[in-house]
Amino acid sequence: MNFQRHDLVYADFRDSDLSDLGHQGLRELILGGKLPGIVRREEGLEDPLLSNHYTEDEAVYVGFVHPVKEDGQRIRFGTSVDGARIESKLTPYDVARMDYDPRTSSLQALKKLAGMHPVGVWGSNALEIVTGLGYTNETSDLDVLKAYEGHEDSMGLSRSVSELESEFGTRIDVELITTDGFGINLKEYVQGGDTLLAKGLRDVILINREDLEKIHGPY
Questions:
Q1: Would you list the DSSP string of the chain?
Q2: Each residue of 177-205: pLDDT tens digit?
Q3: Domain extents in the chain
Q4: Which of 51, 86, 88, 126 falls between 20 and 30 A from 36, CA-CA?
Q5: pLDDT (0 to 100) of residue 219
């Protein structure tokens, strides 16, 4: 099993994995199997030559987020777990296809966008869909990703996003995912600059726009 950025994973998390976590409520959600870990970049590692995924044979770096804000801030915690101890995963695309109650504007926008384009969802909307806990409210943004399938497809997606942002009053951030696993911000892509910032699991790089389809896609 491979694990990519934004995947949600359930594992045999133990007290020893949470030794630095002082928040009892978040600890109980993790150990009780209610809250998945979010696959994230390993801090301090910068190596674009490594693959944009983890495997069962290495440490998988994950983050957790508590559903309730305290003093206006999310309680977050990062750790790592042996990939062999991960029991299951959900990709952002899996989550977007799940049944859920679109109780907030961001979830309503997701439901409509997913009916128009094959997108995945991550962030607070994904956590609410998977856990049933109230991660979103009427001020929440929507974070989605989509496989990069060329210029025309990306421009069509951009038009849909702009329409839905106006309809629902919700900011929608999209990552275009290249074949080798880098994420490019859709709004930056549409602006037409010569270079594009691309976020990976191991590093953040700059991609020349003219090389995007030749080297990094489309699917």
A1: -EE-TT-EEEE---GGGGTT---HHHHHHHHTT-SPEEE-PPTT---TTS-SSEETTSEEEEEEE-SS-BTTB--EEEEEEEGGGEEEEE-HHHHHTS-----SHHHHHHHHHHTTS--EEETHHHHHHHH-S----TT--EEEEEE---HHHHHHHHHHHHHHHHHHT--EEEEEEPTTS-EEEHHHHHHT-SEEEEE-SS-EEEEEHHHHHHHH---
A2: 998 899 999 999 999 888 999 999 988 88
A3: 2-91, 93-216
A4: 51
A5: 53
